[in-house]
Amino acid sequence: MLTSITPLGERGRGNRWRTTSAWLVFGHVVGGFALGLLLAGVGALFVLVGVDPSPAVSTAVVSVAVLGGAVFDLCGGRMPGRRQVDERWLTKYRGWVYGLGFGAQLGFGFVTVVNTALFVSVCVAGVLLPVTNALLLGVVYGSTRGLVAASNGRIRSTAALHRMHRRLDRYEKPVRWGAAVTVTALALGSIVA
């Protein structure tokens, strides 16, 4: 999906990349907000039934979820499900429609492929956070995914697209390891603190 919406592809479909990518980022934010809303709602249900852990317990639970996700990812685990957005939309609808639709699905997270178990940590944290913080977490999650997806604004030729694919393939493992090590350090720091 990351390489489906590029200046090269949008030009070929008769659309403007800037317009489509702006809607894509906006869709990610909307999807992230919906994710935060869902997580806040689940958290509110827990509080209603009397499950309201202290900040220390919440931190420990999120830290364990982060550590579990990092270990799962580092051991080569793959999240279940491979559903991606419907690429037929690229030829069926206008750029702003599939930009918004793809972004909302990807920003929400649950309805498309999730490439890392650390997404589970985001969900656990969102359930344990106060409502406004859960909403903010969802928006930050969606926004971050959206900005990554919109980062391919320099793809104006097939050669550039091939280079990007090679770079993505080359950096997949180092990025996966770097993210897992970073969040592990943060989780361990949280437990110690």
Describe this structure in words.
The protein is mainly α and 193 residues long. It is built from eight helices and no strands. The chain has helices at residues 7-12, 17-48, 55-74, 89-92, 95-108, 118-128, 131-149, 158-192. The mean pLDDT is 89.
Give the SSE layout:
Blueprint: H1 7-12, H2 17-48, H3 55-74, H4 89-92, H5 95-108, H6 118-128, H7 131-149, H8 158-192
Helix pairs in contact: 2-5, 2-6, 2-7, 3-6, 3-8, 5-7, 6-7
Question: What oligomeric state is this?
Answer: single chain
Radius of gyration: 18 Å
Give the mean pLDDT: 89
Q: Helix proportion of residues, in percent?
A: over 70%
Report the portion of residues in β strands: under 5%
What can be said about the biggest beta sheet? Answer: none
Total beta strand runs: 0
Q: What is the ordering of alpha helices and beta strands? A: HHHHHHHH
CA(first)-CA(last) distance: 39 Å
Mass-distribution shape: globular
By DSSP (H or I, 4+ residues per run), the number of helices equals 8
Give the class from helix and strand content and strand pairing: mainly alpha
Q: Identify low-pLDDT runs.
A: none
Task: Tell me briefly what this model is.
The chain has helices at residues 7-12, 17-48, 55-74, 89-92, 95-108, 118-128, 131-149, 158-192.
Short descriptors:
single chain, 193 residues, mainly alpha, 73% helix, globular
